[in-house]
From TrEMBL:
Record's protein name: G-protein coupled receptors family 1 profile domain-containing protein
Transmembrane segments: 24-49, 61-83, 103-126, 138-162, 186-210, 231-249, 269-291
Single annotated GO MF: G protein-coupled receptor activity
Pfam families: 7tm_1
G-protein coupled receptors family 1 profile domain sequence ranges: 40-289
Compartment(s) where it occurs, according to its Swiss-Prot or TrEMBL record: Cell membrane
Keywords, ordered alphabetically: Cell membrane, G-protein coupled receptor, Membrane, Receptor, Transducer, Transmembrane, Transmembrane helix
Length: 333
């Protein structure tokens, strides 16, 4: 009887902050990420397809990164409806698995694509003579093929763990950290170690190598190599700001699911904060496209900056007038 009274008292004192955050915080965040990510990634893919031919290896990686982000943001409207509707899933088991799988596929695909970019920049700075070879399209194709295969191998086991959960006359579509069975917690740890920590170490080592190389002298501080350092710094920021909190809190979420109600829900609430934060990497990726090269920046400006088109039109008009007026000019003028 005493134990049941304690359980009842704990239930009364248990916070529902995680439920409130899922109802109000997640729909707002996911809506913003959807709008910005949809417009930004469609724009980036269009520019690469129409204005930046022929592609280099980095261009191929960028397009695949943008495609991965686009597939992710296209799944967000389903989550916005789900959470704003009080976590009532009405789209069936397949769509539940597909949406949850899509988030993690984007997450680990983005991590590996960003790691490839950091490695390619590192090679360009450390061994400039190999820069032309690394920029060949074949290396971009090989890297992207490997990323898709590795990402699928990392994430596919989730499909057996994510499923619908029917309770209290309501159907829930649980995220991975809430759905993974207790006896399979090792998979979550392994995924964090291989899918995130290992690429983080690789990116950090690339950054250290680039900084050391650029510190050796002025001969290695060309604008191209400085840009390589900026790109690597931005990638490192994405890892630390977007991916690191999510992975730490996901592990905590999995480990505290069997603890007291109050602890479990507080940890769950903090974990909820990190989920959209992981999706914000799409914002950083949009900045990465512009930072990675002047050609993308010029193509973007030529597409969306009216003054550019006005100046170009004036230049063409002025040239046409001069060429037409030239033959009619007096000989002694």
């Amino acid at each position: 009887m005493a134990a049941s009274n304690l359980d009842y008292e704990e239930h009364l004192n248990c916070t529902d902050v995680d439920q409130r955050m899922k109802r109000y915080y997640l729909p707002v965040c996911y809506s913003v990420i959807f709008v910005v990510g949809l417009v930004g990634n469609i724009t980036a893919i269009s520019i690469y397809l129409t204005k930046l031919r022929p592609w280099k290896s980095s261009s191929i990686i960028m397009v695949n990164l943008a495609l991965t982000d686009l597939l992710y943001v296209l799944s967000l409207p389903f989550l916005v409806y789900y959470y704003s509707n009080g976590e009532s899933w009405t789209l069936g088991d397949f769509m539940c698995r597909f949406v949850r799988f899509g988030f993690h596929f984007n997450l680990y695909g983005s991590i590996l694509f960003l790691t490839c970019l950091a490695v390619f920049r590192y090679v360009v700075v450390i061994q400039p003579l190999r820069a032309a070879q690394v920029q060949q399209k074949v290396w971009g194709i090989v890297a992207c093929t490997a990323v898709w295969i590795i990402t699928a191998a990392e994430v596919t086991p989730m499909l057996t763990m994510i499923s619908l959960d029917k309770r209290n006359n309501k159907t829930y579509c649980l995220d991975f950290a809430s759905a993974i069975p207790v006896h399979l917690r090792w998979y979550g740890r392994l995924l964090t170690a291989i899918g995130f920590l290992l690429p983080l170490v690789v990116v950090f080592m690339c950054y250290i190598g680039i900084v050391k190389q650029l510190a050796k002298g002025l001969s290695t501080s060309s604008p191209f190599r400085k840009r390589a350092r900026c790109v690597t710094v931005l990638i490192l920021v994405v890892f630390v700001v977007c991916f690191l909190p999510y992975h730490i809190l996901r592990v905590l979420r999995i480990e505290t699911r069997t603890m007291s109600c109050t602890v479990e829900r507080i940890v769950h609430a903090v974990y909820i904060i990190s989920r959209p934060l992981a999706g914000v990497n799409t914002f950083f990726n949009l900045a990465l496209y512009t930072l990675s090269g002047d050609k993308f920046r010029r193509a973007f400006i030529s597409t969306f900056y009216p003054e550019y088109w006005l100046t170009k039109a004036r230049s063409v008009l002025h040239l046409a007038i001069n060429s037409k007026a030239g033959p009619d000019m007096p000989a002694d003028h």
